[in-house]
Structure formats: structure tokens, C-alpha cells
Amino acid sequence: MKIGFIGVGHMARSIALAITDVKDSTLLLCNRTIQKAIDLQKKIQNSKVSSFEEVIQESDIVFLGVKPIDLFPVLDQIKELKTHALFISMVAGISIEQMQERLDVPYIRILPNTPVAVKKGLTLYRCSEDVTPTQKETFLNLMKGSGEVTEVEEKDINLISVLTSSAPAYLNYFIDALIQAGVKEGLKEDATYYVLKMIDGTIALDLESEKSPLTLGKEVCSPKGSTIEGVQQLLDSNLYEMVSKAVRATYQKNNKMI
Ligand SMILES: NC(=O)c1ccc[n+]([C@@H]2O[C@H](COP(=O)([O-])OP(=O)(O)OC[C@H]3O[C@@H](n4cnc5c(N)ncnc54)[C@H](OP(=O)(O)O)[C@@H]3O)[C@@H](O)[C@H]2O)c1
Question: How many Cα atoms within 13 Å fall on the side-chain side of residue 204?
């Protein structure tokens, strides 16, 4: 099977690295700045750097990994070529209907997240009506190495993906803020290690526990202890309102990406 990539930026590169376990497949890599495709090719044994035309004409499956602003020009370019491929678009904010209006081919729309790179991703997906059961099965097989894959309805995708695809950015900013704060108070080294180990353990506990994250959070705050002093600062600084504004801003942008 030939699996093509149009665009191998941050997200598509992670997916390409996650699906390399698939037997008897060749990855055809195309990127506007060719060096990115060359660098990725060196990391994936069964891959080659390919032209746009080669990817579209020869692949059975094509991942579209370009930014939203580049998607329609890419679809117009595909229209000029012969293709038998199933197209998998990871482009945020552009629905299957919008893509099919421009180029009428079968699509699976996916919203992956960056943990795909370490095979712990959570990818939302939705199929167009003309995707066959065999194509869907092939897609699910391909994505196995990337983590979890969940089918969602179109009406929900722009909102759920705020929490699954965009929130890794929010979380990483919070992690960095914690590290910076530790350093500011005088921690000389290992701040990053301490914070990342803490996050790892906290999430493992949250996943295993039957208690809600809020209950688990409250359990750390002994009455009159030191933790509650810090938590109170976060609440006084409108933590919930701030996060709610972030989610709303990303969601609204998802709804008017083009
Ligand atoms: N990052 C995430 O966490 C995330 C999560 C979910 C979905 N997404 C979606 O994934 C897509 C890519 O995001 P990203 O963060 O990976 O962006 P990115 O790093 O900028 O990657 C986009 C890539 O597409 C290439 N490209 C643009 N036009 C092309 C063309 N005509 N032919 C071949 N390659 C072309 C770009 O090449 P150049 O090197 O020349 O710029 C670039 O390498 C976006 O649509 C985004 O909505 C991202």
C-alpha cells in the first residue's frame, strides 16, 4: 500500500512516524520546503521523497497536512490530476462538506493531537458517506500505532478538538509557567524534571481514580495547609474564567477558519 503525505510539518510528521509499523507500505513524502521531507525520509525506512503529482497519482491513501489557508489551493491542484486515493485531512476547522464542494473525493477528517508523536495520541475522526467499510478499516489499522482513535459527529468536532488538539498547548504553557515560577523562587536545576514527573503521576492517578479531578485536587489541600494558599491565588486570579475564555476563543476560531 502507498501512503502519501502532502505537507510534513509538525502534525503530519508525527503521524508519519506513528504509522511506520504498517507492513508492506511505502510512505510518499511531499512538502513545499523539500528539506522537511528529506529530513523525515531519513527517519523512516520505507519512505521516499515524492513530488505532489506522484503522491496524488500513486497513493492509496493521502494525508493532507497543510495549514487551513493552504488547503483549498491544494484541493484545486489535486483536481487537475488522476487519483484513486482516500484523502485524510487533518486540517482544523474545515468540514468534509466544505472539502467535497471543492473536490468531490472520499475523505476522512481527523483531528489528531501532538501526543501522537509518542503513540499516546487521541485522534477524533469522521468519514464522508462515500468512504467504504474497507477503507475505514484500513484507516483504523493505520492509526493503531498513534494511540486512541474516536469517531465523532461533525457538529461536535470543532468543540471536542479544542479540548483534545488545542489544549495540549494550554497545558504546556501551564507547565512552563510552573517551571518559571519555581526558578523565580530560587530553584536552580531540575525544575522541568520535577514538574513533568508530577504531571505524569497526577494524570496517571486521575485516570485510575474514580474520583473527579476536582475532588483529587481538593484532597491535596489540607485545611490551613500551604497548598490551599496557592490554590486560592489561582482562584482569586480567575483561573476558571481564564480557561473558559481560552476555550471559547479557540472554538470560535475553529468555526470560522475559512
Ligand atoms: N499542530 C497540532 O497540534 C495540530 C492538531 C490538529 C490538527 N492540526 C492541523 O494540522 C495541519 C498542519 O499543522 P502543523 O502545525 O503541522 O503546521 P505546519 O508545521 O506549518 O505544517 C504544514 C506543512 O504543510 C506544508 N505545505 C504547505 N503547502 C503545501 C503544498 N502545496 N504542498 C506540500 N506541502 C505544503 C508546509 O510547508 P513549508 O515547510 O514550506 O511551510 C508545512 O511543512 C493544520 O491544518 C492544523 O490545523 C494541527
Answer: 6
Q: How far is CA 1 from the centre of its chain?
A: 24
φ and ψ of 151, to 5 deg: -80, 135
Does residue 20 register a pLDDT over 80? Answer: no
C-alpha cell at position 151: 469517531
Does 196 lie in the same domain as 123?
Answer: no
Q: Cβ neighbours of residue 9 under 8 Å, at least 6 residues apart? A: 31, 36, 65, 66, 67
Tell whether the model's pLDDT for residue 207 goes beyond 80: yes
Given pLDDT bands bounded at 50, 70 and 90, which one contains residue 24? confident
Question: Last residue of a domain, which of 152, 171, 190?
Answer: 152
Domain membership of residue 67 as a residue range: 2-152
Residue 189: pLDDT band by 50, 70, 90 thresholds?
Answer: confident
Find out whether the beta carbon of 32 lies less than 6 Å from any atom of ligand 1: yes
**Site of grid cell 508492506:** 24
**Burial class, 85, CB count within 10 angstroms (exposed 0-12 / middle 13-18 / buried 19+):** buried
Ligand 1 atom showing the smallest separation from residue 112 Cα = 6
d(CA 258, CA 244): 23
| Residue linked to cell 471559547 | 248
Among 116, 93, 137, 122, CA closest to 254: 93
Residue linked to cell 475523505? 107
pLDDT at site 258: 64
For ligand 1, the distance from its centroid to the CA atom of residue 175, given in whole angstroms, is: 25
pTM, entire model = 0.91
pLDDT at residue 241 above 70?
Answer: yes
Protein residue with its CA nearest to atom 44 in ligand 1: 67
Instruction: Please indicate, yes or no, whether residues 15 and 108 belong to a single structural domain of this protein.
Output: yes
| Average pLDDT over all residues of the chain | 95
